[in-house]
Design brief:
With 165 residues, this protein is an alpha+beta fold. The chain is built from three helices and ten strands, in the order E-E-E-E-E-H-H-E-H-E-E-E-E. 23% of the residues lie in helices and 35% in strands. The chain starts with 5 loop residues before the first strand and ends with a strand.
Length: 165
Amino acid sequence: MNGLVNKHIVDVADFKVSRNSDDILITGALGSCVAVAVYDPQVHVGGLLHFILPHSSLDEDRARYAPAMFADTGIPLLLQSCYAMGCHKKRMTIRVAGGATVANTGSDSAMGRENVFAVKKIFSEHDFPIEGEDTGDNCIRCVHMLISDGGVMVRSSNRTRIVRL
């Protein structure tokens, strides 16, 4: 590491992948949304996805031009981008944060649970263990992923401490 830090913001319904050990991938405003962080320690490549909804079938038109908005299209896109940079499935670590209940009534109250369920189902179906998770609750989260070592830090609106996944 050269001492310089390059912060890259991952917007809502987007993802970024990097192999630069000076990079930190950051996403915030995770309520019912979920962040998925993947990392291959051998090639020092990591990626961070911030998706909103569990299934692209909820809005197929939008899924065509914004696939990172959905778990079922965003996660494969994130993984393919990591594979293209030399990652291997057997070495990759997966960490997940978000999926909170952000409202007491209405459809938003269940969306966080549905998003977390979708992530777990996708990774389970493809034999990817999730190695760290900070999900649920009723809070807003911010995620920082260090490309230097794959570390994932989660800051939550209901905690004064930072959780390292």
